[in-house]
Amino acid sequence: MSVSWFLVVSALVFSIGAAGVLTRRNPLVVLLCLELMLNAANIALIAFARMWGNGDGQIFAIIVMVVAACEVCIGLGLVVAIFRRRLPIDVDEIRELHG
Amino acid sequence: MSEVFFFIAAIGAICGAVGVVMVRNPFYAVLALVFHLLSLAALFLLLEAQFVAAAQVVVYAGAVMVLYVFVVAYVGAAEPSRLRAPVSAAQRALAVVFALALFVELSIAVLGSALAALDTGGPTVGATFGTPQQIGQLFLTRFLLPFEVASFLLLIAAVGAVVLARRRGGIHEEEAQRLSVMDFSRPLTTGTMAEAVGAPLTRGAEPRTLGAEPEDADRAPTGGGGW
Amino acid sequence: METSAWLILLCPLAGTLITSFGFRRLPARATGIVGTLAIAGAFASAFATFVALQDRAEDSRQVVYSAWDYAVTVGVDAKLSILVDPLSVFMALVVTGVSTLIHLYSVAYMTEDRGYARFFAYLNFFVFSMLVLVMAGNFLILIAGWAFVGAASYLLISFWYRRTTATSAGIKAFVINVVGDVGLVLGTFFIFRHSNTLDFLGTFDSASKDFASHNGALTAGLILLLVGAFAKSAQVPLHTWLPDAMEGPTPVSALIHAATMVTAGVYLIARMYPLFELSDGAALVGTIVGAVTLLVAGTIGLAVTDLKRVIAYSTMSQIGYMVMAVSAGAYVAGLFHLMTHAFFKALLFMAAGSLISAMGGEQSLDRMSGFRKAMPFTFMCFVIGGLALSAFPLTSGFFSKDEILGDIAARGGGWWVFVVIGYVGAVLTAVYTWRMIFRAFWGEPCREARELEEGHLHHAEQPFNPATGEIEDTQVGFPGPEHVIAERAGEMRGAMSILAVLALVGGFIQVPFLTSGLEKFLDPTFADSRLDLSPSNGLVIVGFVVGAVISIGGIYTAFVIWVRRPGMSTQIRERFSAAYTLFVNKWYFDELIDLLVVRPWAWFGRFDQQTFERVVVNGLVGSATNVVKAGSAAARALQNGFLRAYAALLVVGVVVVAFYFLVQSS
Fold first, then answer.
1. Nearest-CA residue of chain C relative to A97?
2. Among the CATH numbers 3.40.50.2300, 1.10.3720.10, 3.40.50.1580, 1.20.120.1200, which is that of B1-78?
3. Which class in CATH covers the domain with range A3-84?
4. Shortest CB distance from C651 goes to which of A18, A30, A95?
5. I need a labelling partner for B158 at 20 to 30 A (CA). Which of A90, C182, C384, C410 fits?
6. Model's pTM, two decimal places?
7. pLDDT tier at C510 (50, 70, 90 boundaries)?
8. Which residue of A has its CA nearest to B171?
C-alpha cells in the first residue's frame, strides 16, 4: 500500500469529475463534479503529506475544503438566483456571455 | 489488512464518483457524493490524517452537502428541458475519451516520476502526525496567514451568497410592473456583445412589452438572442 | 535688353493679378482699361526689346536670360529661362500688338457683361501664357506656356458658362489640346533622351551630332511634337474643337482662335527647324497635314452658314498654309503669313462681332442680308479683310501667300503638288470669303438691317442661344444685355481701323525685289538652315500673276453666284448635293472621332466600372475583408458562452500540454 496507489485513485477520481463536468447539463451536478475534482486533489495532497511526513499537505487540504465550501456557496446562490428568474436550470441555455 | 480497507474505500470512492456523474436525479447524485466523501474520509484515515478525515465528514459531508440538499430541494429535480435532446452520444464518448486520456497521463506522470518514495508507505511518523494538535499548531504558526485569509474568504462567500439570493430582481408580479421608460425605448439586446458585433438580432430586437414573459423555457437557441 | 524682355512677360501677369484681385475696388470699365494698358505695356517692352536686339551684332542676336534654376543637376538643366532672338521678338510683337487692339475692342464690346472683369483677367492671363510660350528658352517653359494657353483657351471658350453649348465646346477644346500636350511632352522626352539638355540652343547646336545615329528616335519625337502642334493649331484630325470654340465671345475668337494661340503650332515647328531639317519624314508629315487641312477646311467653309464658323474654317485653312510652309522649309514666308493673317483675321472677327451685335446675337448667314447701307464701317472692314484673305493683289495677304507658294515651288520636284494644292485652296478661300461677304451685305436688307438704317439697334425680346434657341433668362454666365456695334463705339472703330490699315499695307515689308525687311530681321534665327529657298525671279512673277488671277477670279465667281444670279447657289448645291452634304457635315470628322475614340473609351470606362471594379477590385478588397471577417468569426466562435465547451477546451488543453511534456521528458 504505497503512496502511489492513492495517487492513482486521485487521478481516477479527477478524470471522472472532469468527464462529469463535460457531460452533465444540470449546473448543480456540474458543481458536484467540481467537488469531485477538488476532493481528488485533496487525496493527492494528503498522500503527499504522508509521503513527506509533515503536515503541510493536510493544512493545504483543509484550505482546499474551505475554498470548496465558499465556491459551493456562491455557485448554489447563482443557481438559486437563476431558478428565481425562471430560467431553465441548464448549463446549455445560460450562455449570454459570448462573443 | 490495511490493503483490504484501502481497496474497499477506494472502490467506494470510485463508485461514488461514477454515481455522481451518471445518475440522472441530482438528489441521488448528491447522495452519491456523500458516499464518496465518506469513502474519502476512510482513505484519509488510512493515510493517518485523522483531523482531516473528521473535518471531511463533519464539514464537507455534513455541512456542505446539507446545503446542497437544501438547494436541490428548493430548485427541484429540475431535469433539463423536456424538449431538449440529451447530451449526444458523441459528446459523451469524447468526454470519456479525454477523461481517460487525462487519467492515463496523470498516472504516467505520477508513477513515472523519479520520486523513490512513491513506492513506499512513507516514513514512520510519530503519534502526533495528523492529530488536531499538530494541525492547530501548524495553523497558528506556519500557516497563520492562509488561515486568516481563509476566514476572510468565508466571510466574503457568505455575504456574496446573501446578496445573490436576495429578492431584488426576482420576477414577482409586483416587481414585474416596475418597468421604466428605458425598458421600452431600447431593445433587449442593448449593450450585449451581439449588438456590438452586429449579429442578426432575431429575438430581443424589439423593446420589451409590458407583462409579457421575457423568455420561455422552450426556446430553440439562436445566436445573439436576448434574454 | 534683359529688363525689357522680362517686362514683356511681367506686364500681362501684373494685369491679370490686378484685375483678378482688385476688380471689386475698381470701377466697372477700369478693369478693361487696366487690361488694355497691361498689354500695351507688353507691346512697348517688346518694341524696346526689338530695338535693343537690332542694336546688337548680327551673330549675337540669340540671347538666353535665366531667372532661376528649378533643377540643375547631372543630366538635366531645368531653368526658368527665356530666349530673346528675332523669332521670339517677332512673335512677341505680333501677339502683343494684336492683343492690345483686341483688348481695346473688348473694352467696348463686352459692356454690361456681368463677367467684364473676369474677361479681362482671363484675356491678360492668356496673353501672358502665349508670351511665355513664344519666349521660352527651353522645353520645360515651352510646355508650361503650352499648357497655360490651353487652360486660358478653355476658360475663355466657356466664358458664358451657363450655356451648355459653350461649356461642352470648352471641354472639347481642352480634351483635344490635352492630346496634343501629351504628344508635346512625349516628343520632348524623345528628343531629350539623346540631346541631354532641355535648352533650345543647346539642343539645336548639337542636333546633328546627337541624332546622327538615332534618326528614328528623332523622327518619332518630332512627329509627337507635330501632334502637339496639330492639336493646338487645329489641323486635321485634331481640328474639331476650333469651330465649336466659336461659342466664346468674339474678341476671344479674334485673339485666340485667329491670331495667336492657333499659331503656336506654327511657331513650334519654326522654332524646331534644325531638328525638322534633320528628319525628312517628320517634315513631310507636317507638310502633308498642312496641305490636307487647307483643302478640307476650305471646302467646309463653302458650306457652313454660321458666320463665325466660316471665319473659323478659314483660319484653319490659312494655318494649314502656314504649317505647310514651315514644314517645307519656307520659314520666313510662313511667319510672314502668320503676321498678315493675324491682322486680317482679327479684323474679320472684329467686324463679324459688330455684325452679330447688329443682328441681336444671331449668327446665321441665312438670316443676314443687305447690311451695306446700315453698317458702312463694318462693311468696309469686311471688304478689306476679305480682300487680304483672298490675296487680292497688293494686300498683305497677297504677298505672304504667294511667297509661301513660291518658296515651296523653289524646292522643285514633288513639292509642286503642294503648290497646286495651295492654289486650289486659294480659289476656295476667295470663294467662301466673298460668299460670306456678299450674303451678309448685298441683297435685300433683312429686318435687323432695316431697323438699323432707321437708327434702332435690334434686340431680341428674350436673350437666347443662337445655336439651340434656348432662352437665357439671367445675366450671370450668359452674354450681357448690350449689343455694341462698331459704328457706335469709338474703341472698336479705332482698333479695327488700325488693323485695316495693317492688313492693307503690312505686306509691303516683304515685297520681292523691293524690300525684305522681315527676312533680314529673322535671318539670325534661321541662319543655320540648310534649305535656302529662293525662288527664281521668273517663278516669283508667275506666282504673282497666277495668284492675282485666282484671287480676282474667285471674287468674281462669288459675285456671280451670290449677287448677279440669285438662284444659282441653290442650283449648284442641288447639283452637287453629295459633296455639299459632305462639306456641311464637316467631312463627318466629329462622327468619326465619336465612333473611333469616344465610344470605345466610354465602353471601356463602363466596363471598368461595372465589371472590373466590381469583380476584381472589390472582389480582391472584399475577399481581404472577408478573410479577416471569417478569421474573426472563427475566433469569436470560441467564445460561445457554452460552459461545457469551455470546460472541454480546458480539459483537452491540459491533455495536450501534459502529453507534450510527457513525451518531451521521456
1. C641
2. 1.20.120.1200
3. mainly alpha
4. A18
5. A90
6. 0.71
7. confident
8. A85
